[in-house]
Automatic annotation (TrEMBL):
It is found in: Nucleus. GO terms for molecular function: helicase activity; mRNA binding. GO terms for cellular component: catalytic step 2 spliceosome; U2-type spliceosomal complex. Residues 1149-1341 form the DNA2/NAM7 helicase-like C-terminal domain. InterPro entries: Aquarius_b-barrel, Aquarius_insert, Aquarius_N, CWF11_fam, DNA2/NAM7-like, DNA2/NAM7-like_C, DNA2/NAM7_AAA_11, P-loop_NTPase. This is Pre-mRNA-splicing factor. The keyword Lipid metabolism does not apply. Belongs to the 40S cdc5-associated complex (or cwf complex), a spliceosome sub-complex reminiscent of a late-stage spliceosome. CDD domains: EEXXQc_AQR, SF1_C_Upf1. Residues 1-43, 784-813, 1383-1431, 1471-1492 are annotated as: Disordered.
Amino acid sequence: MPPKHSAKKAQPSDKDATEDQPQAQTQGSNGPPTGSHRPTVKDMQTDSVATLAEAWSKSESAATEYDAQLIERVYNDELVKNDYNVAKLALLEVSQYLEKYLWPHYDPSHSPTVHVLSIVLMVNEKFRSRVGAWSAFEESPEHFPAFFEQVLRLCLQESDMKLKCYLVVFMINCFQSLENPLIRSECMRLVSLSTWHSLISAAKREVEFKEYPQLLKFWKHLEKKFDAYDKEQQAKAVFERTWLSEMMKGFVAILESIEQDEEEKIAYCERFMEFLIDLEAQLPTRRYFNTLVEDHQIVAICKLSKFASNKESSVLFSQLLDILAFYTGFEINGHTGLALTKEEMTEIHAARLSKLQRIAFADFREELMDLAMSNLRAIESREALLKHFENLNQEQLIQLCQLLNIRTTNITNPEADHSRIMLLEVLLLQLEKRHSQIERINALPLYPDENALFEDAAVKEEMYSADRPLALPKLNLQFLTLHDYLLRNFNLFRLESNYEIRQDIEDAVRRLGPRAGAIDGATVFSGWSRMAAPISYFKMVEVAKPNLGEDKPSLITADVTFNVRKYTEAIQAEWEAIREHDILFLLTIEAQEESYEHWDGKVSFRKHYGLKHVRGCQVVSVIGPNGKPFDYKKSDPKLIQDHRTGNTRTFRIALDSNQYKIDQEAARKSGGSDVYQTFNIVLRRQPQENNFKPVLETIRDLMQSDLMVPEWLHDVFLGYGNPNSAHYSQLKRQVKEIDFRDTFLDLDHLKASFPGMKIKAKDGDESSLTAPFVVMFPEAPEAAASGSKKKKGSEKAKKEKASQNQEQAQDELIVSTYKTPNMGPYPEDVPNTNKVRFTPTQVEAIKAGTNPGLTLVVGPPGTGKTDVAVQIIANLYNNFPNQHTLLVTHSNQALNQLFEKIIALDVDERHLLRLGHGEEELNTELSFSKYGRVTSFLEKRVSLLAEVDRLAQSMEIGGEHGSTCETAGYFYSYHVVPKWKEFESKVAANGESLELITTSFPFSGFFINAPVPLFSDCGTAEAALDVAQGCFRHLSKLFEQLEEVSAFELLRTSYDRANYLLTKEAKIIAMTCTHAALKRRELVNLGFKYDNIVMEEAAQILEVETFIPMLLQDPEDGVNRLKRVILIGDHNQLPPVVKNTAFQQYGNMEQSMFTRFVRLGVPAIELDAQGRARSDMADLYKWRYKSLGDLPNVTERQEYKFANPGFLHDFQFINVNNYKGQGETAPRPHFIQNLGEAEYVVAVYQYMRLLGYPAEKITILTTYNGQKDLIRDVLNQRCSWNPIFGRPATVATVDKYQGQQNDYVLLSLVRTKAVGHVRDVRRLVVALSRARLGLYIFGRQKLFENCHELEPAFKRLLKRPTKLWLKTGEMYPNTARLIGAEAKADGEEETEDSKAGKKGAKKDKKGAKKGKAGKADNEEEGSASTSKDYEIQDIDQMGEYVFGMMKEQQQYAIQQQQAYLQSISAPMETDAAPAAGADVEQAEGAMEVDQE
């Protein structure tokens, strides 16, 4: 059996170590320490920068005295002399050098160059550290244009390569921040149309102006504007419009001057390539810049440069060049912004070739006659064109280029003509056919191989140090086209998946311990892994012939067998959980002699362990003991038992046909062995982390389909145009009148929800207004303006509209009401209603979500965003009964919370459907899965038909009317409806009377089982008629349900019934974003349709995983039917999880679509009142939001009024010093632990449990996985086995706990050397906002109090003592102490009472050590007269205090036992004593463990 993990050492488990996000310098997986530097406490205290920083860091605001020499000293002595050391830059950034000194004292007329460079360096450092960079410039924005101009001039003038590199990085950061108006206004002038002054000739411009005449108008306007400038303004304008051209000329000069190993020049050229790519990859910057790049022939110059030919040193440069070449020829019209189809691209290329043929025929008839007479297909390739151009000499090549408006001279030396090679290259680049990205991606294996996993430079990056660019796409604010959007996401998602797979493989291989056998050198495995098993037998089963038109096998299957005998039952169950479509990996390991040694990173992981091959595969079926496909649910029970008792498991797997083709071609060329006969390890991954293949397949499918984003959303989605354009107020399809149903509780609630608006009753009688309300809104001015452009309608309609507009003012709401119809006499007929009193902001969000368009709702912690989402869905369901709404979340937990709340509202359960595996976790007896709903429908059918039979009997109508849905329908049409109409006619003819209604009602017999009699003798005729109508509505609904169920009689298979339910019956369909990606192809093929999408946790979902759920249906008549997109999230909390820091930071992969829209300025409704935490606890994170207040329940509910029993404060930061001489430790890279904090947290948990706090109300959080495991180990040793303590509700990392809450949270910050990733304020907000009633934070005060980003929260925390203060003599929940009655108020000086408490605490220490503290008896211990304040100095004292409480409880238990024994007779005494002593034994056992 495998060895069990020791509880005393919290080492990373087989799958746990990867969650910690590396933030500090750590050991990379392929070599020495790398990563982004975070200054430690020691650095901040001892470094020479710290001494200089005292001049500005001590003051609360900007320093008042300016010393130019100080900036000189910092720059020259600390930065230049230390070669711009990252540690020095980080220290300066942390000390707020930019905010408190550099920018406040910047003077455009007097500040020297070093001042400007220092600002540039600080901005770059802030971007590298992932903290806000531009807020400092808001203080004196008028100085920014002059500063920016100085930077531009330095970019051209500076000769130091390292500084030039820093300046280019600054420009990259600027162009990545175009959402900032201050930055945008400066940057966009550099890429305007006026840059075309730098084109080779006016003829080049004229060609563009001829194609786009509007550009000529704009050009003339710019020229007039230029002529009106004075000389100084003209000089500045010339400088700005030629800046990019001059930069490119300077870049080419540096590129051509590179000699071997000139690292600084190489680094600059790589950065400049990144800069060019960024400008090409955004439409606003690309529009005119692309023409300039083509004219300056940058791609051709780079491709033919001497440096590019050096394959060893130019790897990254060449990769960047490929990306630049791709974007310069991207399929988009740069002037209109329209994506070009494949056919349009073919036409453009054909037009270029045709023009070439005409020139060849007219001017080079002798040399190029064959080219002129060839068909276009014959001359589209590079090889064919080159063959024809070889016939031209140098002069003829120059002439040809000039006729094609191609530059023929060197951009750095206009007098020098291009060489022949250069002329040929520029011609070929312009005329050759581009390779299709779609074809390349289709030929790409979706499973990574060993090269993609271990040789790709980007995937190998364990830490991104930001010192070099990467050949990665960036997720910017804007995208060129939908194809560009998908392509960038495809590449990044694939690389991130590869990185995670590599980590899993490395972990499993290390645990397997491969080594070369002593006898024959064959690989043996000395260890074991729960995620990987040695293969016993591997056999290829089938290699199917290629499909028509393809050259790869259509299917490749194999059987893989392995032994599970050595595994525990739990691990065997994990292997048995593998099902069809799950992904496995096959590994070939050929161990070397040194493989058994510990890998030190000096050689590659692959080489050290002999990892030769990695291939992915998909499970087709499980093979049973009889050699046939096997199903755990459907197979014979005996076969299942035989399978489970056997030692081997066999899977039939499908291999990647693209990869198989590549492998076979490689084997033929090299004559090597067949890869597929060498596998010796099969590896599985956690199911939730193994969905990469279907996501990649979905993106690939989308790239090849006719994508149709709704027209109203298209421009905003790509990041162009007016960010308000998709808001409902800008759309013509506004919902003018909304039935809010149960949204408002009463008229006062309605009035309070629309402040500043007048409420006008539609019938003029406001006193008659009661819920529910129908509200008519005034037409927005924008919509009215757009409506006026429509064609003229009838005069009558126009008069009606004018009359209506006059009746309703812009500040007026016309409100009507209606009586909720009686739906029947049974309790289930009474609709559920909303009980939440929504705030005005929440109502605005509900109103916006009910209207068509894009709605963004920012929901800070505890602001009821789930309730808002549920109410939006309910309103859509009731207002638009024929529309279908798709509900999507990131996690199953959030989806289930939403779904449970929807069930509780007035939504018919037959219209609800929950897809995915999380459905079984719903807290309801009903099943809302596809097959569960089908079963429910069939069961409902039986009960409904029985009701039809009962109705027929009550009406005394013979026959089998309830035999089928069809016969029931006939019965309704021919018997029920006529009877009802006859009743209505009789009542109408003879007048409404109580007696007539009660005697004539034809269905009284059916409703005899109603809980109360239908008609009351003392009731009114009106009430009786209402009851009768309600009864008929009940019957109508019964037959309506039967009509819906009738399809299930015709459909025979569960599959068909489930799909019918999904596509026809369900009106609200819920799924996770992962399920949407997994099932997109299936849903589209089924004809799935929906009109609205509501996405919760939108800020936690990757861009592409947000996009996929919007495209789960085919367009109708070329139009996407989506009417509403409602995104609900909080960009101030944690973003999507991206484990590779290179993709996270450089590729910006952690940016969600929600965050991108907020950055773009799309209108967002920010909920402004929280109801989760006590008000003073919420102050810890309220500063991150515009105006976050409290809901009434925070002050009104009893639990918020009283203090936490046993604690002096409801929240505290507890300083934890070194424990046993240690602070943070790292048993392995990124696996960070702090034993002192773990012990302290567990001791406080024990204290709370001894006071009576329920374990389920306590959560322990930490910021690192290593600490989570350590805390769990300490709990296992001290608490888990003992029912007195048990385990807390959750022990988790902050990242995993986002979206959840508990009454009391104990938070361990872990770090003592560097702040780490808690410096990300989003993580801090999550950490501080999980608790409702009590929050106790354990950390190192000196480290966190000096962190600028965390300062607002820690200022509030540190107003309270940093030693834990207890309140003795209280037990949970008995306390009469109010929350405002702490001994030491926030922000106040220490009171006499607290001083006395400290003295009393010191006196009590001895008693605590003797075990006499913490008295617990059955008296009223919440009395203020018996309680006192008690200060805990350190971890040891807390342990002693808890031990004393436990000892007193033991003594108390002994006293109770003795009293019990004395109270019973002798015979009973003998039987009862052992049972009564159980508690004593438990307490003694707990004490023994704690003493150890």
